[in-house]
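Notes from the 1:1 (GR / supervisor)

We went over the backlog. Supervisor wanted to see one worked example end to end before approving the batch request, so GR pasted a single chain during the call. The sequence is below; no edits were made to it. Supervisor asked that the structure be written out right there so they could see what the output format looks like.
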Amino acid sequence: MATIIPVRGFTPVIGKGCFLAPNASIIGDVTIGDQCSVWFNTVLRGDVNTITIGDRVNIQDGSVLHTLYQKSTIEIGNDVSIGHSVVIHGAKIRDLALIGMGAIVMDDAEVGEGAIVAAGSVVLSRTKIGPNELWAGTPAKFVKMVDPAQSREINQKIARNYLMYSRWYPADTITPED
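Structure output shown during the call:
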């Protein structure tokens, strides 16, 4: 079972039907919605401030989510995919966004609904990525607009796929549905 650690009076709250990899670490002031998946070697470290995750979010292997003490929080919407080895530090990620593998999203950055951050990109502090925008590079820059219907279809498919993958694992790694 995942490592779940209360810190400073905060105990993580995990939604229904979530997959938690056995070596994932969920610490402190973390709230995870329903039907999410937190994959292998992932750390959600809510020891210094709040991390709030919506429904059907997949946070893939080796990702790290953290914040700044008394300054930044993490808010992740619904149907969001966080790729392998992503670092999110005190940022807001809106519904249906996709953060590509190895990307870094820094404090007070905002990633709009349906937006895509390309693999390996570095989104600097206070950057505002609008809805359905594709950003790439180091530092990340606007590349083009993404068709909203196509973005929704792709991101919901990824979210559904990760929910399906999570059901391949033992029942004791999945939180109860009721």
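Supervisor's comment: The longest strand covers residues 43-53.
Batch request approved.
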